[in-house]
């Protein structure tokens, strides 16, 4: 029996749906191949936009092995856009400390996540199967999204109008054909789609293999809720809290180890016993061996097909950004696909997907590789220097803050909208050699790009806002309620005014609405938000901007200081009427309307969910 569900029909085993009998064709706006975190986020984003979407997934169930163990506030902001952030956070652990400890268990570096202004906790630990279930439940809200489980795309054929996909149902060997205007391939590191497109996957696979162990915590132990990178040259380890009563351990397979033996319960209990954890304290759920990869697809776009997530890039897990990078990919891509499909922007805007995402993900990967070296280095001379020097640096004013605040993930900075190659701006600590186009200014500063040098130079006469994502504080909406900013922005093009709105005729002719930011203490007003905590107006002042033109993902496309008109909108921008307006939050299913996850364990590790 074919397993197909459409919209909020809940039966994953329902036959047919949407006119897919026999070998006939059906038309969709977007086909999504792969239903992991990247694919399911894309399905939610596209479904919320009202597009007709089909999702193809070869497996019948959610992958049971927990891979990702954490995410960050920017990714939660993306999931907020689809109305699921608050529900997801019910199953997460927020604001847990992080320690790098030496062979004796002494911390030589401790870090504390510092908020970057996205409106959510800066770091949250998660249990991936539970997270994916909530995201899949969210897809069921959208009647125009069909999910075909146990279906695999065997062939893609592109033409001037779209893509024909030949799909086989693995349960009954049925063959179907469907057409989509565009395809998002989120089918993992071994992507069959990428292979069909003959796109190279360049990089390396590390020789070290790691056994990853998911456990259920039966009895808590001291500091069980701290993430520890155990930097022991004899055998490094990752000791990580995860929610819903789980705990993650990771150990390398060393030369001379029997890989199969290390996945047995006896070997696992022997390894964790070094840290005082007895067999009565954990139940071993599963143990899997993984290799670490650093790879990038040679191209992220081939005609009407886009690679996303692990199909486009792979990185080591050390800063918890593998899954997050895929979510950022589709957040960047889906609003552009929506705009092109609605005729609001020309198709050429889709070229900016790779131009914006690839430099950023390469810089994130470089950081992950560096942190991995700090954790896993087994050379005694190097680890002795590390263990001695880092605590000393941790006492140096200025340096200590950068080491401790855990802002190791570079912030994406798209310098010139769609017109130029983006650069990345780092926030917080900088590791090793600076990548081409990467800066090291703090979160409150920015630099203006010059294409011929690939660097950023601040020009006093110009605003520095373009290319940055604006912060998301709590604001007072026109109806007097206190909400997060993005719930008012509505995920669309918008002019944001920090003073009395100045006429912007070119943007107004394109149909772009306006929103005014009123100072704290102002009365709520239609077409305005009150900056209750003073965050937005301070940000505008810091970037010497009075008016912003925001993209649907809240990145600044253009900005102007007082008395200066905005640069023109992107060529061809013409907005079509939408249900949501700038003063109306987008429709979202409240947390109470989604199925709840299984009750957390009664152990203290499960009680810290925000």
Report the sheet-strand fraction: 25-35%
The number of distinct helices, counting runs of at least 4 residues, comes to: 14
Task: Please provide the count of β strands.
Answer: 32
* Main β-sheet description: 9 strands, mixed
Overall pLDDT, averaged?
83
Fraction in helix = 10-25%
Which outline best applies?
A: globular
Alpha-beta content class? alpha+beta
End-to-end Cα distance? 41 Å
Low-pLDDT ranges: 8-24, 420-461, 580-593, 595-610
User: What oligomeric state is this?
Assistant: single chain
Radius of gyration: 24 Å
What this model shows, in words?
By secondary structure, the chain is of the alpha+beta class. The protein is 23% helix and 27% strand. It has 14 helices and 32 strands. The strands form seven sheets. Strands 1, 2, 3, 9, 10, 11, 12, 18 and 19 form a nine-stranded mixed sheet that branches. A hairpin with a 5-residue loop joins strand 26 (474-476) and strand 27. The longest helix has 25 residues, at 352-376. The model is unreliable at 8-24, 420-461, 580-593 and 595-610 (pLDDT under 50).
